[in-house]
Amino acid sequence: MLDHFAAHPEQSYTLSELSQALDINVASLLSVLQALTDAGYLARHPRRKTYGLGMSVVAVGHAALTRHRVVDRARSELRVLAAESGAQYVVSAVAGDSIVILAVDGRGRSPEVWAGERLPLLPPLGQVFLAWSGAGSGEIRRWLDRTAVGAPLPHHLDAAMAVVRERGWSANRDTSARTALGEALAALADAPRDARLRERVAESVASLGDDYELLAVAADGRYRLATLSAPVFDQHGSVALALTLTGLPELTGERLMALADQLTGVARVLGTEIGGRPPVLSAG
Question: In this structure, which of 36, 199, 228, 251 has its CB flanked by the most CB atoms within 10 Å?
Fold first, then answer.
């Protein structure tokens, strides 16, 4: 329920609209809405009988940022970089089987990305979060098990994540398949329990292809990227956050490398502030 409202912070919904979108029967839904409204997490319009986010969520948000100050620090650092590059910045984290968008700002050309959005953690999405896990790790296994991918790590994913580990950042190509995925995700946000839409998203992810990750950059080449991302490591050597630039204009290879250096520099600073350290991977 709260995920749905977080993805549509300015919207209000009737009981029937929420029941249809969330695929929850009206009787069960009404009791949850009443409890959230009584606690101030939702607010009910007295005439329209619609529900929207309430003031208590603001308090929870401030409390969360107090505990996770690195998110606010990331926003501050990335705001400058996004302005310089004419892009949009995104701060995200993994929660269960989803990538949660924590903050978005900037002038980029990717209106399908917003704070509160949840992206499915399906291969190849999330390479920047998984690249530092061992090939046989539980994280990789769970990632693959969410698709119809066979038992071993597919060679193209293994190669892509090896490149991400080596250079310390991930660059995803801007393709027609990536645009189709954005459209599918936007539709799913309005009806998160719709099985047909979930299947459409899974099909869109699968269609991204073997060349989703940009594996090599030539200084005199020209590139159109969907995302440029760098990890922030926590004290356990896990990826706590991904810092992403999206909505970028076409870049020369030289400019791409310079932006990647700036982005990874911000990620290192933030990682140091939270006592983070890059993981030590075994040779196997």
Answer: 228
Tell me how far apart the alpha carbons of residues 120 and 185 are, in angstroms, rounded to a whole number.
9
Distance, in Å, from the CA atom of 16 to the CA atom of 49, rounded to the nearest integer, reads 11
Instruction: Answer for the pair 124, 213: CB distance below 8 angstroms, yes or no.
Output: yes
Question: How far apart, in whole angstroms, are the C-alpha atoms of residue 209 and residue 226?
Answer: 14
* Dist CA 211 CA 76 (whole Å): 32
Q: How far apart are the first and last CA of the chain?
A: 43
Other Cβ atoms within 10 Å of 219 Cβ, number: 10
Strand partners, 233: 239
Q: Look up residue 225 and give its two tokens.
A: 């990227």
- Of 140 and 226, more confident: 226
**What's the rounded Cα separation, in Å, for the pair 126 and 124?**
6
- Reported as a single tens digit per residue, the pLDDT across 214-234 is 999 999 999 999 999 999 999
**Strands 51-53 and 42-44, bridge-based pairing:** antiparallel
